[in-house]
Design a protein that fits this description.
CATH class of the largest domain: Alpha Beta
Number of domains: 3
Radius of gyration: 30 Å
CATH architecture of the largest domain: 2-Layer Sandwich
Largest sheet: 9 strands, mixed
Structural class: alpha+beta
Strand content: 25-35%
RNA sequence: CGGGGCGUAGCGUAGUGGCUAGCGCGCCUGGUUUGGGACCAGGAGACCGGAGGUUCGAAUCCUCUCGCCCCGACCA
């Protein structure tokens, strides 16, 4: 039993000035967390109980699935991370430090290397596999911009697991087991979520799915089809194009279009000067980029932007991708900024990538590769040839579902879990092999699975809070029942404590507000802010032998008789 | 890293060159209250983020610096 008179807690009446999102404001106001530095928070008793509840649920579901818990240090030497190149590849997001002898260390951002090496150190036979191990660990990433309180911190608690299998079928099974365990876990956490494809699968069929908790303040955007249930990260969304037949257009016509470097101005000039009656979607946008030192051109319909994140995700071989800058344009005089067209790409030695909407045989209004001139009837297959199709255009609400052709909606969400088939990347670079039946070494294939534990606190708060405060699902809440004693006599207070102890004996967790000083109103406000789902008020009803039970979830209150209080409260808790 | 904003008591804030830096919440003491963030009286708590400068005089002006928030870029 927690007692408010003893609890290390101070609630705040005003929103903290540095908080923007609801979870952040409420967790601070209700005394769950306090900020220490940007993206770094301390947990006070109520918050820490809540965090540990989530940890416990995750742990129970992992254990039930047969996965085993281990624990690595957060402070790690650089050597394993050098072996996989991540010491350099991870870049400035890695927290690095040195010991007194000048040795390089890091604060672990994720632990693939350590898990791989641990297995390598212990196991060497196919008979030892499959194996899945996990840990719950504090992770560190020096994010360029931590934000939204606890949603994106630089220090955060994460559960990460890794599966080890001898072959692809085994990996698939381990992956599916994890997926099931995650479904059970998030259901218990009381989160609404979508399971969303995260990668196009173009790369060796490596499956990857994200568990996204929809909410307005989420920082991930994803696509959802309300008709068939298809859900995908925008990067993984594939464009659905209804095939069209095109008549053969006349030969290319070059037109004078002075001062029309933008699509908008082009459409204006075409319609006013040439009576073309077109929209931006009839024009072709040619975006020049440098992809690992090679110039490439990406073609999208003129009414769409190129989504660089999507493009990057769909160009797996490319490490660095950036837009042409003025210097690039000045180095290649044949490419006229604002008047680029695909028809001379071969001659210019530029690879053409195109959005699937640039269909075979389609024709477009586009740049003429001369200043102040555009060309029309520029036809795919005749005047230019696409080298590769790529998902590069921004995804919009109303685009067609790739599975059932229904217009999709776009939603925002917080990523709370991610499962994916890592394959042999780490096993290879760290040389994790086991002997197979024939005594031959085979490289182990791995899966990697994460749940943001501290982030889940915020995600739940975002999804469940209301105007007056937090509102926790029962298993997550810092207690099952919040008992408020009111009045100036001793009786409600002794009674409240009595009920508290009886409920504890019956297996419920309770928080009793036994403070004598604050008025009833203050205690009600605090109870609502703190968000324990069942609030019991012991006060003026006592003379009639009744107390009041409030349910934050159904937003109802009932008077119940003192004599049956324990069973009735238990029933309400159970009903949640 | 680019753009914008902000640092004044534990929290929220007022104060744009001139008295002892003001108010609300919270905190302490005493009293009245006790079912919706009560009231009265008294009190503690701030080197105004830091350094340097201008000035008779700086929270206030200038320079530098540190920190924080938001948008963007970035994010296994």
């Amino acid at each position: 039993m927690l007692r408010m008179s003893q609890l290390f807690l101070r609630t705040l009446r005003d929103d903290p000035a540095d908080a923007e999102v609801a979870s952040h404001k409420l967790l601070v106001r209700a005394g769950y967390i306090r900020r220490i530095a940007a993206g770094i928070y301390s947990w006070l008793p109520l918050g820490y109980i809540t965090l540990r509840n989530i940890e416990r649920i995750v742990r129970e579901e992992m254990d039930r699935a047969g996965f085993q818990e281990v624990h690595f240090p957060a402070l790690l030497p650089k050597e394993p991370y050098e072996a996989t190149n991540r010491w350099s590849e991870y870049g400035p997001d890695l927290f690095r430090l040195q010991d007194r002898r000048g040795g390089d260390y890091l604060l672990g951002p994720t632990h693939e290397e350590m898990f791989t090496l641990m297995v390598k150190g212990e196991y060497s036979s196919y008979k030892d596999l499959p194996l899945t191990i996990y840990q719950i660990q504090t992770k560190y990433r020096d994010e360029t911009r931590p934000r939204s309180g606890i949603i994106r911190g630089r220090e955060f608690v994460m559960k990460d697991s890794y599966s080890f299998d001898i072959d692809d079928a085994g990996l698939q099974k381990s992956y599916d087991d994890h997926r099931d365990a995650y479904i059970k876990t998030f259901n218990r956490l009381g989160l609404k979520y979508s399971i969303v494809s995260a990668m196009s699968g173009a790369m060796g069929g490596s499956a990857s799915e994200e568990f996204l908790a929809p909410c307005d303040t989420g920082e991930d955007t994803y696509v959802l089809c309300n008709s068939c249930g298809f859900a995908a990260n925008v990067e993984a969304m594939s464009t659905k194009v209804l095939p069209q037949k095109f008549d053969t257009p006349p030969a290319i016509e070059v037109l004078d279009t002075p001062n029309t470097p933008t699509i908008e101005s082009l459409v204006e000039v075409m319609n006013s000067k040439y009576q073309a009656n077109i929209t931006a979607a009839d024009t072709l946008k040619n975006i020049l980029l440098i992809a690992d030192d090679q110039a490439i051109c990406v073609l999208v319909p003129g009414d769409r932007e190129v989504d660089l994140k999507r493009l990057q995700a769909n160009l797996p071989g490319i490490q660095e991708l950036r837009l042409f800058d003025d210097e690039d344009f000045s180095k290649r005089k044949e490419l006229v900024k604002g008047y680029v067209g695909p028809q001379d790409a071969k001659r210019f030695g530029i690879t053409l990538y195109a959005d699937p909407r640039i269909q075979a045989g389609s024709h477009w209004i586009t740049g003429a590769n001369q200043a102040n001139k555009h060309a029309r009837f520029v036809t795919e297959g005749r005047d230019f040839t696409i080298d590769h199709y790529v998902e590069a255009a921004e995804v919009r609400a109303g685009d067609l579902c790739p599975r059932c052709d229904t217009p999709v909606v776009i939603d925002r969400a917080i990523e709370i879990g991610h499962i994916f088939q890592l394959g042999r990347k780490y096993a290879q670079s760290l040389d994790l092999t086991v002997l197979d039946k024939d005594g031959k070494p085979v490289v182990v294939t791995m899966g990697s699975y994460g749940i943001g534990i501290s982030r889940a606190v915020a995600a739940i708060a975002e999804q469940t809070h209301d105007e007056i405060g937090l509102k926790w699902p029962r298993e997550v809440a810092p207690a099952d029942v919040h008992i408020v004693a009111t009045g100036k006599d001793d009786e409600p207070f002794t009674k409240a404590l009595e009920i508290g102890s009886e409920l504890e004996r019956a297996g419920l967790r309770t928080l009793v507000d036994d403070r004598r000083d604050p008025s009833a109103g203050v205690k009600f406000k605090d109870a609502e802010l703190i968000g324990i789902p069942v609030i019991v008020v012991v006060g003026k009803g006592l003379v009639n032998g009744v107390i009041e039970v409030r349910n934050r979830w159904t937003n109802t209150k009932n008077e119940i008789s003192l004599s049956s209080a324990i069973t009735e409260i238990q029933a309400v808790v159970k009903s949640l």
